[in-house]
Amino acid sequence: MKFVDEAEITVTGGRGGNGCLSFRREKYIPKGGPDGGDGGHGGSVYLVASPGLNTLADFRYTRHFKAANGRPGAGKNRTGAGGDDLYVTVPAGTLVSDADTDEPIGDLTGDTPLLVAAGGRRGIGNARFKSSVNRAPQQTTPGQPGDERRLNLELQVLADVGLLGLPNAGKSTLLRAVSEARPKVADYPFTTLHPQLGVIRLDAGRSFVMADIPGLIEGAASGVGLGIQFLRHLRRTGLLLHIVDIRPFEPELDPATAVRQVAGELGKFSDALADKPRWLVLNKADLFASPEQASRRNEIVAELGWQGPVFTISALNGSGCTELTAAIMNYLEQRSDAA
Questions:
Q1: How far apart are CA 188 and CA 177, in angstroms?
Q2: For the segment 162-215, what is each residue's pLDDT rounded down to a tens digit?
Q3: pTM for this structure?
Q4: Of the options 2.120.10.30, 3.40.190.10, 3.40.50.300, 3.30.1490.20, the CATH number for the domain spanning 161-338
Q5: Residue ranges of the alpha helices (H) in the chain?
Q6: Furthest-apart CA pair in the chain: how many Å?
């Protein structure tokens, strides 16, 4: 299924059933009186998060969702049946806002359904209008229409750790190395076309979720490439891993230059995202002997003036990945304890 992370839908609550105008007319009961029942309430529309969904693609085909109407009342003081509520499933992590006002409505990350369109109130039957001065009321009220609104849905994947870097830095290879996820890996840019998630399990009860997005290139904040449109998926993460190819390229693709380039695009997109904790992960160390690995690491760190954690790994053969994932798990647990 094609990945879609934005959609617009219309939701409508069911109309309430009309009240009934009726009088009791039975043989030998000349003064039966009013017995018109109330209508039923209209059904409401709810959105509910489903962990089994990971895209909004289904909303390309169905965009209007309407709950059932309430049934009208009937004689003999019978109340009409209420309309069934409609529950629309969306991926966990979906942000909901009003399409006309941009007002935030909810963030679907848990199991609690979100009411987005209330059903209409029921109409009142004439039996409810009977009084000492109005013995044969002719009044009823109609059912009210349900709410109708246009909604914007925006998916932000739920992940603890996000991967950043240029195309072909090795992000997808790292995700394959440390989880059961199988993102596409190839020797050309933009093999990752949409976010990929992987669960990294260390021990029983100790795991975290890692998200890989398409690589960022210079000018991404202005719409160049693919990555900028998926950066929103990293907003929920608690830690960013900046994956960098450790090999020395020509000056415009030097590792330090690559780090600054991606960091610059990150800052243009969101100050909050740029301020998230970010670790430097130097990849493809298998292409160098150990002494050269240490030398390259020191050169890059010195040129950047990097103050945060630095890891040297080979996503291809798994070297250094165990130490990296253990450090991430410890960091996330300490962060959770401090919260």
A1: 19
A2: 998 888 888 989 999 998 866 555 443 444 556 788 889 998 789 999 988 876
A3: 0.79
A4: 3.40.50.300
A5: 171-178, 255-269, 271-274, 290-304, 321-338
A6: 109
